């Protein structure tokens, strides 16, 4: 008896995949696996009801804690992609790992998903699964299925499905972000209606939020310690009241397609903003500038679903080393849909108020006049270059298009010598 594990949400795509895997691919049993990374309770109810109606063997795996841990790794990496915090991209490898574990435990011969051949998720799932011995199946991609065909097929088979939101929007939710796409949102010139948002309210009012970090990891909000999942969920609700964390972006997918995406991510916005502010206080200039390229590479790999790649381990080794001093607090003000830093504090601050103040004189053996020598050398090369260039005679073009020979080389040398002696 052959068995296939299916990433199962109970939505249209994965529901039609059940009979297709049996009829078109010849599998005797389909095992549905739903992974909890913070979706609404209604989605689990839908999955359970649909699985029961289909007579599907169904498993639900709680992976919120593992996902929250990866999100906090993303905070340490200040991870964003084209201007928005990564959410769906971070969730997919966690979901894929959980489904693979169930598939192996249940002695499945294959593993399947309902992703389209135009999106990123097919790659994120399969990069994890193709490391196993199981056959990987993608019915929607392999059979070229469209949403319209699936709706007709579901009606013919009397499958227990709904298109979701009347078929208007495609929504993906986890504790880190809520992504909305499809329908009229595919038109870049379409102004989204307010009802596409659930986590964020119309921006009004303001408040401040203090976030405490230990070694780069958020541990408390406004003085109250919380576990990772609880902390994220609390900030989503609290900061979301002030309209914080909305992104409308034209996103470049891995396959080269440009698509419009709308995201909500209140907690991610607050935590990334606060973390960046604390890093600015405790890291040196060299660490900050070097970390930018590391963050970019980490974010790109995360977007691609490659968080388990060896290079990511190397990137995280650098990131973790920089985070040893990222302990302290940062306070942000959320108002009018914006989130900005208003204060930060750490015992590891690479900062001396006494040295930076305009009201102090000699501190740590350094006086203002000590900067005179630096000021003389600063910009010396640029000033010299400008003086030399000003004395260069531009060659006149001959009739044949060539340049007339001049004694400009001698002029340049004399100008440089004159400048250095005069200055």
Labels describing this entry:
Rossmann fold, 16 strands, single chain, alpha/beta, 20% strand
Q: Overview of this structure, please?
A:
It is a single chain. This protein is α/β, with parallel strands linked by helices. Helices cover 42% and strands 20% of the residues. The mean pLDDT is 91. Helix 5 (121-129) links the parallel strand 6 (110-112) and strand 7. The N and C termini lie far apart (90 Å). The protein has a 5-stranded parallel β-sheet with strand order 3-2-1-6-7, sandwiched between helices. Strands 12-11-10-15-16 form a 5-stranded antiparallel β-sheet. Helix 14 (380-390) packs across helix 15 (408-422). It is elongated and about 90 Å long. The protein has helices at 12-23, 41-54, 64-76, 88-105, 121-129, 139-142, 147-156, 228-240, 266-282, 285-303, 310-322, 353-356, 371-377, 380-390, 408-422; strands at 3-7, 29-36, 57-62, 80-81, 84-85, 110-112, 135-137, 170-173, 178-181, 206-214, 217-221, 224-225, 246-252, 258-264, 328-335, 338-345. It contains 15 helices and 16 strands. It has 3 domains: 3-172, 3-Layer(aba) Sandwich (Rossmann fold), CATH 3.40.50; 178-356, Argininosuccinate synthetase, chain A, domain 2; 370-422, no CATH class.
């Amino acid at each position: 008896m052959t068995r296939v594990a299916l990433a199962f949400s109970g939505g249209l795509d994965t529901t039609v995949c059940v009979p297709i895997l049996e009829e078109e691919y010849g599998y005797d049993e389909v095992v549905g696996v739903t992974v909890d990374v913070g979706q609404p309770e209604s989605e689990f109810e839908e999955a359970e009801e649909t699985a029961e109606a289909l007579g599907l063997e169904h498993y639900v795996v709680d992976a919120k804690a593992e996902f929250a841990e990866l999100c906090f790794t993303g905070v340490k990496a200040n991870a964003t992609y084209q201007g928005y915090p990564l959410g769906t991209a971070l969730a997919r490898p966690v979901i894929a790992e959980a489904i693979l574990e169930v598939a192996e435990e249940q002695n499945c011969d294959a593993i399947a998903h309902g992703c389209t051949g135009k999106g990123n998720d097919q790659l994120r799932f399969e990069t994890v699964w193709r490391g196993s011995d199981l056959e990987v199946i993608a019915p929607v991609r392999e059979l070229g299925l469209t949403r319209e065909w699936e709706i007709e097929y579901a009606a013919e088979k009397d499958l227990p499905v709904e298109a979701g939101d009347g078929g208007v929007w495609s929504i993906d939710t986890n504790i880190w972000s809520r992504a909305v796409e499809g329908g009229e949102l595919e038109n870049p010139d379409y102004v989204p209606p307010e009802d596409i948002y659930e986590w964020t309210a119309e921006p009004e009012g303001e408040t401040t939020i203090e976030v405490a970090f230990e070694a780069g990891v958020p541990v408390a909000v406004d003085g109250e310690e919380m576990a990772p999942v609880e902390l994220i969920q609390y900030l989503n609700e609290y900061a979301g009241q002030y309209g914080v964390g909305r992104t409308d972006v034209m996103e470049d997918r891995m396959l080269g397609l440009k698509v419009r995406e709308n995201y909500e991510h209140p907690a991610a916005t607050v935590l990334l903003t606060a973390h960046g502010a604390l890093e600015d206080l405790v890291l040196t200039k060299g660490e900050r500038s070097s970390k930018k390229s590391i963050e970019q590479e980490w974010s790109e790999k995360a977007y691609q679903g490659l968080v388990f790649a060896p290079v990511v381990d190397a990137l995280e080794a650098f990131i973790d080393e920089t985070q040893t001093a990222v302990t302290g607090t940062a306070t942000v003000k959320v108002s009018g849909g914006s989130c900005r830093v208003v204060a930060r504090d750490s015992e590891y601050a690479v900062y001396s108020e006494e040295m930076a103040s305009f009201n102090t004189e000699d501190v740590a053996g350094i006086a203002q006049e000590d900067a005179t020598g630096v000021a003389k050398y600063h910009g010396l090369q640029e000033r010299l270059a400008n003086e030399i260039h000003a004395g260069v005679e531009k060659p006149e073009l001959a009739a044949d298009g060539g340049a007339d020979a001049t004694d400009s080389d001698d002029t340049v040398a004399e100008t440089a010598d004159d400048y250095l002696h005069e200055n």
